[in-house]
Each structure stands twice: as structure tokens, then as C-alpha cells.
Amino acid sequence: MLKRMSQVVLSVALLAGYVSVAQAEMSREDFAIKVRKSGFTMLTWYMGPMGRMLKGDMPFDKAQFQRNAETLAFLSKLPKDAFIPGSDKGETKAKPDVWSKADKFKEANDAMESETAKLAELSKGGNLDALNEQFGKVRKTCKACHEEFKTKSD
User: Fold this and answer.
1) Domain segments of the chain: what residues?
2) Does the N-terminal or the C-terminal CB of the chain have fewer CB atoms within 10 Å?
3) Whole-number pLDDT of residue 6
4) Distance of alpha carbon 122 from alpha carbon 115, whole angstroms
């Protein structure tokens, strides 16, 4: 676990360096959009293998599943910080409701954080039925937020 946390800290440090360079080249609002898009991309990256394992599309690897679940729980806390005032303009798929219904948006984020934390905890046991059920709950939180707060892709 200490090794994993060291990797996360190193990743954050590298991101901080990238942040310094990128911020010098774009507005704070545009950078916020970039940060949250990156955060959501990372969430997808770690969810993918877990879903494939649970579907049987790839062998179940308890250690990898647990690592991904713990990383997902950590990452789930990050994108919401980048929904800053003024970042509703530009290359974003965030609906205006993110800001006009801020309390509801916060509840949706809190639900995702809670469900990913539960998944991380369950991953320590490796019970596939329990993991599959909880993974479904995580996906539902993602879908609910997308339906209410994200514009559809073309």
C-alpha cells in the first residue's frame, strides 16, 4: 500500500509540473476543463479492466482489481474540484445545471465517492458476486450524473 501511495504522490507531483506549464498557456477556466476531462478519462481507464474481469472478458486478477478499485476511489474525489465558476464556457460537455443545481451536483459526486469507496473495501475480499453488485452501483452513479449534468456527444 505504501508503494501504491508513493506512486500516486509521484503522479500528482508530475501533474503539478504539467499544471504549471499548462496554466501559463491557458486561462484558469480552460485549464479547469482540461483537468476534469483528464480526471474522468483516468476514472474510465481504471474501471475498464474491472468491468472486463467481472464480465469474464479477461481473467479475474484479485490484486489488479483491488489496485484499480483503490485508485478509482481516490480519483473519484478529484474532478469535482475543477468545476469552478467560469468553466461552463469553452470545450466542455458540462450542462449549466452543474452550477445552477450545485447542491444536486454535489450529491451526485458524493454518491460516486461513496460507492467507489465501498467497491475498494469489498475488493479486499474478492467475492465476485459482491464485487459485481457494487460495481453496478458505481456505474449507476456515473450514469445518473452523466444523464443529468453532461450534454450528449454528437
Assistant:
1) 26-149
2) C
3) 65
4) 11
Nearest Cα neighbor of 142 from 70, 48, 56, 34 is 48
Q: Check residue 38 and give its pLDDT.
A: 95
| Tally of CB atoms within 10 A around 101 | 15
Fold for the domain defined by 26-149: Four Helix Bundle (Hemerythrin (Met), subunit A) (1.20.120)
What is the CB neighbour count within 10 angstroms for residue 23?
A: 14
pTM: 0.81
Question: Which residues neighbour 138 within 8 Å (Cβ) at sequence distance 6 or greater?
Answer: 47, 72, 112, 115, 116, 119
Span 123-142, pLDDT tens digits: 999 899 999 999 999 999 99
Q: What is the pLDDT of residue 4?
A: 66
